[in-house]
Amino acid sequence: DGVLALINRGATDEDTRRALRLLKDAGYKVDVHLMPNLPGASPSLDAAMFETMSSGADHQADQWKIYPCEVTPWTVIQKWHESGRFVPYPDEELIETILDAK
């Protein structure tokens, strides 16, 4: 929840679990989008996110899409990056974290 709050996501892990349950109970196929390397994240936090999504009974999805965070123009993340408030972890660690998720 710390990363979600930092990026002003407007939802919590509990919100996600509830939404997944409601969708699955209604017979929907659920596709989740996961974004490692967000501000406030680390390889260990992202690995824990992937582990929760793959083994947590309340987090089961039919499909994942993984989109690593990118610094894009005209965003708050760009401002944080330019000021040094957000420093993404190295690409090599990001690749290993994603590969370990499979």
From TrEMBL:
<keyword id="KW-0949">S-adenosyl-L-methionine</keyword>
<dbReference type="GO" id="GO:0046872">
    <property type="term" value="F:metal ion binding"/>
</dbReference>
<keyword id="KW-0411">Iron-sulfur</keyword>
<dbReference type="InterPro" id="IPR039661">
    <property type="entry name" value="ELP3"/>
</dbReference>
<dbReference type="GO" id="GO:0051539">
    <property type="term" value="F:4 iron, 4 sulfur cluster binding"/>
</dbReference>
<dbReference type="GO" id="GO:0033588">
    <property type="term" value="C:elongator holoenzyme complex"/>
</dbReference>
<dbReference type="InterPro" id="IPR032432">
    <property type="entry name" value="Radical_SAM_C"/>
</dbReference>
<dbReference type="GO" id="GO:0005634">
    <property type="term" value="C:nucleus"/>
</dbReference>
<keyword id="KW-0004">4Fe-4S</keyword>
<keyword id="KW-0479">Metal-binding</keyword>
<dbReference type="GO" id="GO:0005737">
    <property type="term" value="C:cytoplasm"/>
</dbReference>
<keyword id="KW-0408">Iron</keyword>
<dbReference type="InterPro" id="IPR058240">
    <property type="entry name" value="rSAM_sf"/>
</dbReference>
<dbReference type="GO" id="GO:0002926">
    <property type="term" value="P:tRNA wobble base 5-methoxycarbonylmethyl-2-thiouridinylation"/>
</dbReference>
<protein>
    <recommendedName>
        <fullName>Radical SAM C-terminal extension domain-containing protein</fullName>
    </recommendedName>
</protein>
<dbReference type="Pfam" id="PF16199">
    <property type="entry name" value="Radical_SAM_C"/>
</dbReference>
<feature type="domain" description="Radical SAM C-terminal extension">
    <location>
        <begin position="62"/>
        <end position="101"/>
    </location>
</feature>
